[in-house]
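Why do we bother with holo predictions? Because pocket geometry can differ from the apo form. Keep that in mind while you read this record for beta-D-galactopyranose.
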Amino acid sequence: MRRTLSVLLTMLLTCATLVTPARATDSREVTYDRYSLMVDGRRVVLQAAEFHYFRLPSPRLWRDVLEKFKAAGFNAVSLYFSWAYHSPKSGVYDFTGVRDVDRLLRMASEAGLYVIARPGPYINAESSGGGLPAWVKTVPGRARSSESGYQAAYREWLHHINPIIARHQITEGGPVILYNAENEYQVNTDAAYMQDIQDQARADGIDVPITTNDCCDGGSWSSTWATGPGAVQIPGIDDYPQSFECANPGLWGPWGEGLTERLRDDIPVFAAEYQAGAIDVGNAGYDKCRELTGPAFMKYFYKNNLVTTGATMFSYYMGYGGTNWGWLAQPNDVYTSYDYGAPITEARRLTPKYDEFKRQGYFLQAVTPLAKTDPIAAPPVDNPALTTVARANPDTGTQFVLVKHADRAATSTDAATLDWAGHRVPVQVKGRDAHVLVAGYDLGGQRLTLSTSEIMTHAAIGGRDVAVLYGTSGSPGATLLRYGSEPRVTVLDGRVTSTYSGGDLRLDYTHDGLARLLVTGGGRRPLLLLIGTDAEAASFWRTDTASGPVLVRGTDLVRAASVNHGTMRLTADVAAAGEVEVFAPPAAHRLRIGGDDVRVTRTSSGSLLGSTRPPGPAPLPALTGWRAHAESPEAQPGFDDSRWTVADRTTTTSPHPPKTLPVLYADDYGYHYGNVWYRGHFTATGAETTIDLNAITGLRGNYLVWLNGRYLGSAVGGVQADSGDQWTPPNPDPGPGHFAIPSGLLKPGADNVIAVLVANMGHNDDWIADDLRFKQPRGLVGASVGGTPITWRIQGAAGVDPVRGGLNNGGLYGERTGWHLPTYPDKSWRLQSANPAATPLTPGVTWYRTSFRLDLPENRDVPVGLRFGGEPSPAYRVQIFLNGWNVGQYGGDIGPQKDFSLPAGLLTEHGTNTLALAVTAEQPVPAGPGPISLFAYGNVRVD
Ligand code: GAL
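The structure, written out:
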């Protein structure tokens, strides 16, 4: 018998080792059911925001953004990985420096955030080619399909990026919780492609659930595709209910109610991309986009989505937008700034939208029964202007009631009595506000019967519960708590009345400032109740220490805290003097913020109260000493182009046949980003009268033409609309330009030189998976000079900048010669009396350079920007280089932007910086750009 048992035991143990492979000690498992994701069986409400590391080429600022996400109550970050950003040409991949995504994933883990990894291959994101490298345009086989040429290309990318993601998965002890395949890919396009992306991921070691984001409420990968080829484990939906019409910020859900549909019964409801800002398609400026998608929208739409659909997986697009530096932007919808009107601005400043995310995010993290709810009958209100929707957790009975206007467009303030759980309590909805109220909830050691205030957070601190509740300023509130016997209520601050009956302590009040109450006795541990307005609630930060959670009121951001030998240490940002109050374990009696000891007193709330020290000034220097130099030597007939690439191809993989031969498409000669030069030589008969060209540049692009050194003029380049698509044929005459040859300029019987500078504003995206659009060429697509044969040479970027990458430079002479680099010796250049605005411009390219020294105070975040005063002329466009980094484009009707971010890291905060401007004028202009100055977006102590 004993022997049999031991054999059985050995067998069991062997089986156990077989089914549970050895894993890293801190490895965990991700599972899910119809309610939520689970990590090692614990339910998680996923609250993610999108971040594009490629739009912030400064790894140390990644940490800042990620910490700001965490401090807003996000528990995850959604990351697109841009193929184009890492691969300048087939077979070449770079994951170093600003492309070090391994470091990015480590930082996300250090910040305490899960990661939704979104490596495409297609990502859209208003990025050039939608994230497909431009070299993919020259690959045979339809992009975003399973056709062989493209398949080889995307597999190459996946086999580079997947292993990096794989080693950071939760199952390996890392932060990656989900893997998103493709982007808004329609099921009827090519399911085999969708399947192969997943097969490659699995083969590369991806073992977390695979998701996808469906566009436009399409439900493309929904229930019918649960098992079909290409089906993913958790399809989600993208929702942009406010549209992108930033010029009209009063809009209210023009693109729908924004309710994320339940796609299947076996998976959670996943809001894969939920609108948290907008692209500025109408050039209204991002502040308007922030208004369009501001706190009012967030309160109504996000809370409505939460309670009406029961979604537990959210990813908000964008949490931080960043910058389309270099040639990162797709040409059709965006300009240099990709601020997006997000909760965190391009210069990493926090906005009122951040406050609203914090109020909602803290709630989602604190009130865990939210992770598993079913719809229930909602308690009624006695005013038809208002309506209620409710859900409950089937295990705990906790109820969540949404109170909002019945007419979603209503803007009035309406009050009602809510008949709930045997109690009649007042509610009020002001304008487009909406409230999620909770009943039947174990709030730490307390039992919340119900509250018409919203819960922001609560924490057990020093043997008592501390809870922060809030409501619209001036609105009535009632909170009921259950006690075995009548507790003692001490109102420390504000006006609150209390009554005890039937086992419930009822508190009635108006939301006004911050009321404080201490409730003791009644058979429970003490409760400190803080009931504030929205603004008061937003002033709280919650963070965790080894000795438990801590709440801080005040400062501008709390990144971390610790308690040691009686001292509470905060890592916090301070922009102005103000109160700081810490709710910490009683052992803490001293406060230190960064290097500063803060004098504190203990308050009647048991907290430590002190004041913060404001940052000192951080003056910035004036920009003087500009030097100028004309370039465009390529326009001159004697210029030596013998080392340029001969453009003599007669075939192309592009679906667009060239208008004339040879093929002159820049991509076909390996020049993918920025400007390209062409030089065409012909022996004139003398009968030629015009030069007829066609060029495609993408929106807002132009091209400039010279003959034998004489400037003939410019034309507007072809745009996406010229490409046609599956419904419309391509325009046979895109971006035409007809240039009359002035008499006496031709040299009959001799070599004549046409020089053309063509802008490339970026590549169309491939949103509809249509090669006609995506593979629309850039550069010259037709050229004739009365039928006389022309031989062509082409020159684009000189190579790939090893630090800044393939998207930093095009083929301007100055770029090829290093005029944008800090090391370039410019002493021989003409010194300007003042700034570039002081002198007229001639057609062609003129460069300006200056340098300035910075010595910004230590432990300070002073985001610096470059400001162009005055109105830009549509006749010139400026490429801005900071220490060699192409940080943006100004003028030329490119967008409304006048302020350009110079992010720390590219900017030397202690030392010399070089600015270089390449100004391309298409006609004579009386004054150059400017006046140009430096400014600070903020000034914050970061201790
Ligand atoms: C979505 C897309 C994102 C982004 C967004 C608009 O459809 O998935 O990549 O383009 O629209 O900003």
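Confidence is low (pLDDT under 50) at residues 1-24.
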